[in-house]
Design brief:
The complex is a heterodimer of chains A (about 375) and B (about 375).
Chain A (H helix, E strand, L loop, with lengths): L2 H16 L2 H21 L7 E7 L4 H12 L3 E6 L3 H9 L5 E5 L3 H6 L3 E9 L3 H30 L10 E7 L6 H32 L1 H6 L5 H30 L8 H25 L3 H18 L11 H7 L3 H14 L4 H30 L1
Parallel strand pairs in A: 1-2, 1-3
Antiparallel strand pairs in A: 3-4
Chain B lengths: L2 H17 L1 H21 L7 E7 L4 H12 L3 E6 L3 H8 L5 E5 L3 H7 L4 E7 L3 H26 L8 E9 L7 H31 L1 H6 L5 H30 L8 H26 L2 H18 L12 H7 L3 H14 L4 H25 L7
Parallel strand pairs in B: 1-2, 1-3
Antiparallel strand pairs in B: 3-4
The chains are: A alpha/beta (about 375), B alpha/beta (about 375).
Chain lengths: ~375, ~375
C-alpha cells in the first residue's frame, strides 16, 4: 500500500464533501439541530392529558375524586360533558385521551362503606399513553381509598382496618428523577452519527460509478485496498468528528450526565462508525446508481434502527428477532453509550459490547474489498 | 397545458420507475418489512423484564412474596441471596430492577411492625423503570391484601373507588393496532419525499432537466409529469400496506378504503411538494438525500405522534408539529383503522395537509424558473 497515493485519495474524498458549501452545511447543521429538537420531542412520558368527565353524581366524594385528578401533574384540563354522545365525540376526535364516568350512586356507596365503580374510557389509539395514565389514576384512587378507610374508621369509632402494611422504598438508580432526556440523547447521538456516516458512505462509490469517475480511478495505479481505505478513512473522520460534536452538545447544552470513561467512548464510537461505514461501503459497491445506494441503505437501516432498542427495549422483542438484532451495530453501541453516559460502565462491560462491533466492521469491510476487487477484473 | 405532452412525460417517468429496482424496493419491499416489524417486533408492550429478587432470609412469608413476583407474566425473575450479587448486573444492563426482601421481613410481619421492601430500578431506561416500580408496588399491595384476607380482617371490602377501564378502539390493548397504521406515514414519507427528492435532483445533476426545459413542454407539465407516477406509486403502496395490515397482520380497518386512500392522497401532496422543493434547492443527490432524511423522514418518525405522544412534548416542539404533515396523517391513519370514518377528524386533517402542500408548491414555483440560470 502506497502512502502518498492513499493520502491523495483521502484528501480528494474529504474535499468532495467539504468543498461545496451546501454539502458542508448539510453535514454539520441538520445533525445538531435534530439532536436539540428531537431530544425534547422523543419522550414516552405522559403529560398534558385532557380528561372528559361525565358526572352523574355531583356528590361530595365524586367532587373530591375529580379534584384529585384535576390537580395531578399529568392532567392539563378536565372537560365536563353532559351526556354520552358528547363524551364519544370528544374521544373520537382525539380531543381527550380518557374519560371518567361516575354513576349517580358513587358518593352514596362510599359513604355507606361500599365499593363504588368509576368507568374509565381510554382512547385505544394511544394505548401506551393510556396505560400509563391509567396507572397514575390507579395511584390516585389508591391514595383516596386509604384516606377513606382511615376516615371511616375514625368516624365509626372503630380502629382503622388492620391488616399488614409494608413500607416500600423505591429508588431509581442512575437517573433518580427518571428524566427521559437522559435516555434519549445518548441514543440519538448514536442514530444521528450512524445516519450521517451511512449517507456519506453509501454515496461514495455509487456516486463515482454514476458520474464516471470510478472508471478513472480504475485506470490509475490505485489498488482496490487503497480505494476502500481511501473511502473508509474520510467517512470515519467525518462520522467521528460529528459524533463528538453531538456528545459535547449532549453533555454541555442538554445537560446529560456523563459518568463513564471518555476515551472508552471515543474508541467505541470509532469502532461503531467503522462498522457502519463497512455496511455502507458494501452496499455502495453493489449499487449502480446513487439512488439505489441511498434507498438500499435506507431500506436496511430503518428496520435496523427499529430493532436496536432505541425506543422500545430489545427484551420486548421475540427471541428470534433478538438474535437478528445482534447483527445491528447500533444495538451494541446503544448499550455502550447508555452505559458510559449513565451507568459508569466498567471496561469489561464496554469490551463485551464492543467486540461485536469489531467483528461487524471486519466482515463488512472485507466484503466491500472483495466486491471492489471483483469489479476491477 | 397539453394533455398529450403531459401523458408522454408521465409515460416516460413511469417506465423509469418500473425499470429501477430501488423504487420498487421502497414502495413494496421496505413497507412489508416495516409492517412486519411493527406488527411483531417493535412493541411498546412490556414483556420479559429481568428482575432480581433478593431473598435475604428464608421465612415462609418472604418466600411467598418472592413466589408472587415469579408468577407474574411481566417479570422474568432471577432469585439471589445477597444484594451484592445483583448490583453489577444492573450496571451491565442484565437486570432492569431488583426487589430486596430484607432479613427481618418475616419477623416484622409477625410482630406487627412495618417490614420494609426496597425496589431498585435501572433508571437509565426510564420507561421500563417506571413500569417496574409501579408494577412491583402493585404485586406487593395485592400480596398484602391477600394476606389480610387470610387473616380475616376483610380489608378487601369497605369503601373503595374501583376503576373499571375500557380501551375503546383497541380493547386487546396491543400497540400494533396503532403502530402499524402509523407506520404507513413513514412509508409514504419515504416514497413521497425521499424518492422524489432523489429523482428530481438526479435530473438536475445529470443535466437532463435542462434538456427537458429545451423541449416545448412547460414547467408545470414537466414537474407534473415527474410527480404523477410517484403519486400513483404512493397510492398503490397504501393499498398494499392496507391489505397486508388487514389480512396478514390482524389489524382491522374499521373505516372505509375510500377514506384511507383519500387520506393518503392528501398526504402525498405535501410529501411530494416537499421532495420537489428539496430537489429544486439542492440540485444534487447527496445534499437532497441528507435534507430529505433530516427534514422529512426523521420528523415523520419522531414528531408525528406515531411513536412519541405529541401532548407530552414541550410547547415549542408541539407548535412545530403543527407544520409537519405527517402529524395529521398519523392521526387520520390511526382513526381510520381503529375507529372508523370519523369525518369530523379526517376532514380537518386533510385540509391541513393540503394547505401545507400548497405552500410547498408555491415556494417551489418561485424557485424554479425555466432558464439555465442557477
Amino acid at each position: 500500500m502506497n502512502l502518498p497515493r492513499l493520502s491523495a485519495l483521502i484528501v480528494k474524498e474529504l474535499l468532495s464533501y467539504l468543498r461545496d458549501p451546501k454539502s458542508r452545511i448539510t453535514l454539520i447543521g441538520p445533525p445538531i439541530m435534530q439532536l436539540l429538537v428531537f431530544s425534547f420531542a422523543a419522550t414516552l412520558e405522559v403529560k398534558n392529558v385532557d380528561v372528559a368527565l361525565l358526572d352523574h353524581d355531583h356528590g361530595a366524594l365524586s367532587e373530591e375524586l375529580v379534584a384529585h385528578v384535576r390537580t395531578s401533574s399529568f392532567v392539563r384540563e378536565i372537560l365536563p360533558v353532559n351526556g354520552p354522545d358528547e363524551l364519544r365525540e370528544l374521544i373520537d376526535t382525539g380531543q381527550v385521551l380518557m374519560a371518567i364516568e361516575l354513576p349517580d350512586d358513587f358518593s352514596r356507596n362510599l359513604t355507606a362503606g361500599r365499593p363504588a365503580r368509576a368507568q374509565v374510557i381510554i382512547d385505544g389509539r394511544h394505548a401506551n399513553a393510556g396505560q400509563i395514565a391509567l396507572r397514575y389514576l390507579n395511584s390516585i384512587a389508591g391514595r383516596m381509598n386509604q384516606d377513606l378507610r382511615f376516615e371511616l374508621g375514625t368516624i365509626r369509632g372503630a380502629p382503622p382496618s388492620g391488616g399488614p402494611v409494608a413500607e416500600i422504598e423505591v429508588r431509581h438508580w442512575f437517573n433518580p428523577n427518571l428524566v427521559y432526556r437522559w435516555f434519549i440523547v445518548p441514543g440519538l447521538v448514536g442514530i444521528l452519527a450512524m445516519l450521517l456516516s451511512l449517507l456519506v458512505t453509501s454515496l461514495s462509490i455509487a456516486r463515482e460509478r454514476e458520474l464516471g469517475t470510478f472508471d478513472q480511478l480504475l485506470v490509475s495505479p490505485v489498488t482496490p485496498l487503497e480505494i476502500i481505505v481511501g473511502k473508509t478513512l474520510p467517512a470515519l473522520i467525518i462520522g467521528t468528528v460529528m459524533g463528538n460534536v453531538m456528545i459535547a452538545a449532549g453533555v454541555f447544552a442538554l445537560r446529560v450526565p456523563f459518568t463513564g470513561s471518555l476515551w472508552m467512548l471515543e474508541l467505541s464510537l470509532m469502532l461503531f462508525i467503522l462498522s457502519v461505514v463497512g455496511i455502507g461501503l458494501t452496499l455502495s459497491s453493489v449499487c449502480k446508481t446513487q439512488q439505489q445506494a441511498i434507498l438500499g441503505v435506507f431500506s436496511i437501516m430503518v428496520p435496523v434502527i427499529l430493532i436496536s432498542g432505541f425506543a422500545t427495549p430489545v427484551e420486548n422483542m421475540p427471541a428470534w428477532l433478538q438474535v437478528v438484532a445482534q447483527a445491528s451495530p447500533l444495538k451494541h453501541f446503544l448499550i455502550i453509550v447508555h452505559g458510559i453516559f449513565l451507568r459508569s460502565a466498567p471496561g469489561s462491560d464496554v469490551i463485551s459490547n464492543a467486540w461485536p462491533l469489531a467483528v461487524i466492521a471486519l466482515v463488512t469491510l472485507t466484503l466491500a474489498n472483495l466486491i471492489v476487487r471483483r469489479r476491477l477484473q | 397545458m397539453r394533455a398529450r405532452r403531459l401523458l408522454a412525460l408521465v409515460a416516460k417517468e413511469s417506465v423509469q420507475v418500473v425499470r429501477d429496482p430501488s423504487a420498487i424496493l421502497i414502495a413494496f419491499v421496505l413497507p412489508t418489512i416495516l409492517l412486519f416489524l411493527f406488527a411483531y417486533a417493535v412493541s411498546l408492550d412490556i414483556r420479559n423484564v429481568r428482575l432480581g429478587v433478593v431473598l435475604e432470609n428464608d421465612g415462609p412469608a418472604a418466600r411467598d412474596l418472592a413466589a408472587d413476583f415469579a408468577a407474574t407474566r411481566y417479570f422474568e425473575v432471577l432469585p439471589v441471596r445477597h444484594r451484592r450479587e445483583v448490583g453489577d448486573m444492573v450496571v451491565s444492563g442484565l437486570l432492569r430492577g431488583v426487589v430486596v426482601i430484607p432479613q427481618d421481613f418475616d419477623r416484622r410481619l409477625a410482630t406487627g411492625s412495618r417490614p420494609a421492601i426496597q425496589i431498585l430500578t435501572d433508571g437509565s431506561q426510564p420507561n421500563t423503570a417506571s413500569f417496574v416500580s409501579g408494577y412491583a408496588e402493585g404485586v406487593v399491595a395485592s400480596w398484602l391484601d391477600r394476606r389480610s384476607g387470610l387473616a380475616g380482617t376483610g380489608a378487601a371490602s369497605g369503601p373503595a373507588v374501583v376503576l373499571e377501564p375500557r380501551f375503546w378502539f383497541n380493547p386487546e390493548v396491543e400497540s400494533r393496532r396503532f403502530l402499524v397504521p402509523g407506520s404507513i406515514a413513514i412509508i409514504m414519507t419515504t416514497i413521497g419525499t425521499l424518492l422524489t427528492a432523489l429523482v428530481v435532483s438526479r435530473e438536475w445533476e445529470r443535466g437532463t432537466m435542462e434538456a427537458l426545459f429545451s423541449t416545448p413542454a412547460g414547467i408545470v407539465e414537466i414537474l407534473l409529469g415527474k410527480l404523477l407516477p410517484y403519486f400513483a406509486l404512493g397510492l398503490l403502496a397504501t393499498l398494499g400496506c392496507g391489505l397486508l395490515a388487514t389480512t396478514v397482520f390482524d389489524v382491522p380497518l374499521r373505516g372505509s378504503w375510500g377514506a384511507l386512500l383519500a387520506l393518503s392522497a392528501s398526504f402525498l401532496i405535501p410529501a411530494l411538494g416537499q421532495g420537489l422543493l428539496i430537489s429544486a434547492l439542492a440540485r444534487n443527490q447527496f445534499v437532497a438525500a441528507q435534507v430529505a432524511v433530516f427534514s422529512g423522514f426523521l420528523p415523520a418518525f419522531l414528531l408525528s405522534g406515531f411513536l412519541f405522544e405529541i401532548d407530552s412534548m414541550p410547547p415549542v416542539i408541539r407548535a412545530v408539529t403543527y407544520v409537519i404533515p405527517a402529524r395529521y396523517f398519523v392521526t387520520g391513519l390511526q382513526t381510520v383503522f381503529a375507529a372508523g370514518d370519523v369525518w369530523s377528524l379526517l376532514v380537518p386533517s386533510m385540509l391541513a395537509m393540503l394547505a401545507i402542500g400548497s405552500v410547498f408548491f408555491a415556494i417551489t414555483a418561485r424557485k424554479t424558473r425555466k432558464s439555465l440560470d442557477r
